TrEMBL record, chains A, B:
Subunit and interaction comment: Heterotetramer of two alpha and two beta chains.
Any GO BP: L-arginine biosynthetic process
Keyword Iron-sulfur on entry: no
Site (Involved in the stabilization of negative charge on the oxyanion by the formation of the oxyanion hole): 110-111
Protein name as annotated: Arginine biosynthesis bifunctional protein ArgJ
CC annotations in GO: cytoplasm
Family (UniProt): Belongs to the ArgJ family.
Annotated substrate binding sites: 147, 169, 180, 260, 379, 384
Functional summary from the UniProt entry: Catalyzes two activities which are involved in the cyclic version of arginine biosynthesis: the synthesis of N-acetylglutamate from glutamate and acetyl-CoA as the acetyl donor, and of ornithine by transacetylation between N(2)-acetylornithine and glutamate.
EC number in record: 2.3.1.35, 2.3.1.1
Site positions (Cleavage): 179-180
Reactions listed under catalytic activity: N(2)-acetyl-L-ornithine + L-glutamate = N-acetyl-L-glutamate + L-ornithine; L-glutamate + acetyl-CoA = N-acetyl-L-glutamate + CoA + H(+)
Pfam families reported for this sequence: ArgJ (PF01960)
Length: 384, 384
């Protein structure tokens, strides 16, 4: 599974000593070709970590031969010296991997903002990881990028002789200064960078972009898709796009399921919207309503807070025609009291909210989680 | 103090039995003239409670003779019957107050969304409140509009024979479904409705509109300014505007200081902005960052979270020129590490964040508070 499920890739995950607790903290993913095609999607935050600025440049060439990922430090807000550290990381990888070019080595980091990385540990770690590269290294790589993740996350899909696999860490920006969602997807399908880019953007738009855990946007979010062409198969475009979407959706669901301090996974489906943008805006507003997130934590089907969240959006709707279901009980009909809220069974981890805007036929699903005292504890200095 | 500090006003606050615990829950404020001029500002939420829809209509006439306020129920998302309840409330007030017209009676409600008000208790309560009206009733009125407020809130300002006084409850939308900020200001200055409107809008724009406790917008927010003209003084426009602003700022500060579950009051000043809109957008983004709010609760001067919040805005800035001070220590300079964060003294309740965008000369101040486990507890069903 993971990034070595597809042919043509090797990976490794090791403990380089970046994390003080000695846990694995450095992953290396290498594309052995014959193709080196790649696409990437990065954080929309205007305050970008050094590795994001670097990797955006690398991806412009459409070729990635290797990815170096580290946990234990975000290398964000570290100034020109931090950027030099990222550059040195790519140079070191190119040096220890015969025949690689630093300009084709992507870098991703996750951890505390505002601290320089311990390069005296990271650079030797790259050499060690290169020595341990294996066609079965995907699992170890997925483990090495964990920060406060309780489990490592991998997924795979494919058909007819080609495969898409991947690994992920984080969920939005959940941890104590430990920003970031990092995702690396690999495929042995034989496709050029432009096709990868199309499939990746379409997939992230309806998966990772619709996970909204705590409304906080990281400085480091990175999603990469690398193609080796090693299967020799040129897949049907729609089938490939669907496989990429399936892997992204699987990983996104795993991220929400592991969100810090969460006790409920919340699936928000907005239906009856005049446009998909309206549906997404409303879903996001519901996902970010702290009062609602507290209520759901307390197993309180508080539809009034759903309505007040909808009311802050610019979506097309008539307040008197809003309908809201919680776990399939329509507790709000026509903007007012609907079915008995006592009928709502809130005992399970997954909570389904359906908001019907009665304004059209478009829809969207946003995934979120509840707001808990554990989240506060894990993200205040008390716990660190 | 409160709404009876100015001449020409009487008020009362009583327990009508709307709240099950028997606490005061009904307030009445009466303008005895000679003028009945008034202005109002209401929630921007498109899902508006019945009393907001009613009072917006009343205010269009520019005259308000009385205000009925209740706690214990928001009368929001209650459909046409809820609107009839508000109408009946105004009719009842006009009936028991000799010579009043229901079309000049404003109504404001606060409490749980989605429940009808117990009109069998509310309507007799209006008669009782009318019987207890007094020129010293302002304090009791302020007490009767409390929901989860730990203290009642009043303020006063003025000069040269005229006065502006007021009362407030709530802070943003903080309580368990107990939405709402309700504010009534009164003055004996002799001014027409248009002048009141100008002064009130200018004041709320830089006070109540810049309090952002939990990012949640109520369905019931109401701020009213009533003028009796009883002093016979026509104040200087600038002096009157400043008095209204002073009372609003005082009450807004009291609201933040009493925010549910909060342990820190956070003053966010954005300077060096290219426009005031930019400064407000950045301040609001910082105020709404859950990760930062948790960090400040833990007395962690986590400037990285300030930068990542700034990075999500559309304001004009260069990430490499951002400076951030926490309690006057410039922990971030030029987008990177600045002065030693160990120098930041976080022991006190008030935390001052200064964000310098280095992009102009405009500025704005937003007030917020931290995110705590107590907030989660108070807003989950566990506590209700």
């Amino acid at each position: 599974m993971s990034v070595t499920a597809a042919q043509g890739f090797t990976a490794a995950g090791i403990a380089a000593g970046i994390k003080e607790n000695g846990n694995p903290d450095l992953a290396l993913v290498v594309n052995n070709g014959p193709r080196l095609a790649a696409a990437g999607v990065f954080t929309a935050n205007r305050v970008k970590a050094a590795p994001v600025v670097w990797s955006e440049q690398v991806l412009k060439g459409g070729q990635v031969s290797a990815v170096v990922l580290n946990s234990g430090g975000a290398n964000a807000c570290t100034g020109p010296l931090g950027f030099q550290d990222t550059h040195a990381t790519a140079e070191k990888a190119a040096e220890v991997l015969a025949g690689h070019n630093a300009g084709e080595v992507a870098v991703a980091s996750t951890g505390l903002i505002g601290l320089r990385l311990p390069m005296d540990k990271l650079l030797p770690g790259i050499a060690q990881a290169a020595a341990e590269l294996s066609g079965h290294g995907g699992e170890k790589a997925a483990i090495a990028i964990k920060t406060t993740d309780s489990v490592h996350k991998t997924a795979v899909a494919g058909q007819d002789g080609w495969t898409v696999g991947g690994m992920a860490k984080g969920a939005g920006m959940l941890a104590p200064g430990l920003a970031t969602m990092l995702v690396v997807l690999t495929t042995d399908a034989d496709l050029p960078a432009a096709d990868l880019d199309t499939a990746l953007r379409a997939a992230t738009r309806t998966t990772f972009d619709r996970v909204d855990s705590d409304g906080c946007m990281s400085t480091n979010d990175t999603v990469l898709l690398l193609a080796s062409g090693a299967s020799g198969v040129v897949p049907d475009g729609a089938a490939f796009a669907e496989a990429v979407r399936t892997v992204c959706a699987d990983l996104a669901r795993q991220l929400i399921g592991d969100a810090e301090g969460a006790s409920k996974d919340i699936r928000i489906e907005v239906i009856g919207a005049a446009s998909e943008d309206d549906a997404v805006e409303v879903g996001r507003s519901i996902a970010r309503n702290n009062l609602l997130k507290c209520a759901l934590h307390g197993e309180d089907p508080n539809w009034g807070r759903v309505l007040s969240a909808i009311g802050t959006t610019s979506a097309v709707f008539d307040p008197g025609q809003l309908n809201v279901a919680i776990n399939d009980v329509w507790v709000c009909k026509n903007g007012s009291v609907g079915e008995d809220r006592e009928l709502v069974d809130m005992r399970y981890r997954e909570v389904r909210i359906t908001a019907d805007l009665s304004a059209g036929t478009e829809s969207a699903v946003i995934w979120s989680n509840d707001l808990t005292a554990d989240y506060v504890h894990e993200n205040s200095a008390y716990s660190s």
